[in-house]
Amino acid sequence: MDGVDNLWCWAHIRRYFIRAGDAHPELAAWTAGWVERIAALYAAHTVLGAADPAAPEHTIAVAQWGAALDTIDAERTAQAAHAQLLHPGAVKVLATLDREWAGLARHREFPELPLDNYADVRVMPMSA
Fold first, then answer.
1. What is the pLDDT of residues 78-90, one digit of tens each?
2. Could you tell me the pTM of the whole model?
3. Which of 38, 8, 27 is closest to 107 using CA atoms?
């Protein structure tokens, strides 16, 4: 659709890393690193959402939020540059992360929106 950009779900990406680690025990440390980086992103997002935009803490929260995204981007780029050294399962997950990066990073433009589609469950009324 013209004029509409995707905003991808971080929980789905996290799940891909966990599944790779479950399928390939030798990726346990690699998976743990990615899960930790994504957890830091969620933590920074929570702090940002709780910060009063008029308070000085908000500026710090914005910086921490940006730093968490930048950390993931830097690690994504570094690992992709040396994909030939990685396990094929890791390469597959990193390819998905790379393919979806624009939509994941777009959360930087919309920090008020949830990082995943599980945070806001709406109950739709039954039609008569």
1. 999 999 999 999 9
2. 0.89
3. 8
Q: 106-114 contacts: CB < 8 A, separation 24 or more? A: 106/5, 106/6, 106/7, 106/8, 107/7, 107/10, 107/45, 107/69, 108/65, 108/66, 108/69, 110/7, 111/45, 111/48, 111/49, 111/62, 111/65, 112/49, 113/7
pLDDT tens by residue, 8-65: 999 999 999 999 999 999 999 999 999 999 999 999 999 999 999 999 999 999 999 9
Interior/surface letters 46-66, b for 16+ CB within 10 angstroms, e for the rest: ebbeebeeeeeeeeebbebbe
